[in-house]
Amino acid sequence: GPLRLSAIGLGETAVGAGFGVLPVTGAAWLQSGVIDVNVMLFSLPIGVWVAAILLINEVPDIAADAATGKHTLPVRLGLRRTSIVYMAIHVAAAGVVVLLTARDVLPIATPVVPLLLLVPAFKAAAAIRRGIADRQGMTQGIEATLGIQMIGTLWVIAAVLYAAFWGSS
Q1: Phi/psi of residue 108, each to 5°?
Q2: Distance set, CA 32 to CA 18, 39, 105, 148 (Å)
Q3: Contact 17, 54 (CB under 8 A)
Q4: What does the alpha-carbon distance between residue 74 and residue 22 come to, in Å, rounded to a whole number?
Q5: Given pLDDT bands bounded at 50, 70 and 90, which one contains residue 169?
Q6: What is the DSSP annotation of 59-98?
């Protein structure tokens, strides 16, 4: 199409919104008729975990993307800064879960898993810093990112269901 969001460094944001924020808030609105701050906050970890998948998957393609004029975030930022953005994404996701727990929206134990998921995220960020020169590390980092998204999303959904049916404390 005429506007390639990934080519101008906005692909991750579009994917995070399209696969996190919009479906989560849309589903909440369809089922309840309400979109509030808590729903918007809840959608953020889901969206940013999906955006992290796209971000880390762009790292092995840095040279090819740069050669074809596709200016993804890793092309624009380089490996070191991409790894920082990647970790910031995961810290933000965990931080939002902590915030929702502090707001008494989610059960008190909910932040445990997102905080533990920072360990594999840190290892994946280290793989990003090394880039494709460490092919095995990149593969493991990508696999870890997929696992983080799946585990984190299912955990937070389970916490929401628990809060809805058995109370948040």
Answers
A1: -60, -30
A2: 20, 11, 16, 29
A3: no
A4: 25
A5: very low
A6: GGGHHHHHHTT---HHHHHHHHHHHHHHHHHHHHHHHHHH
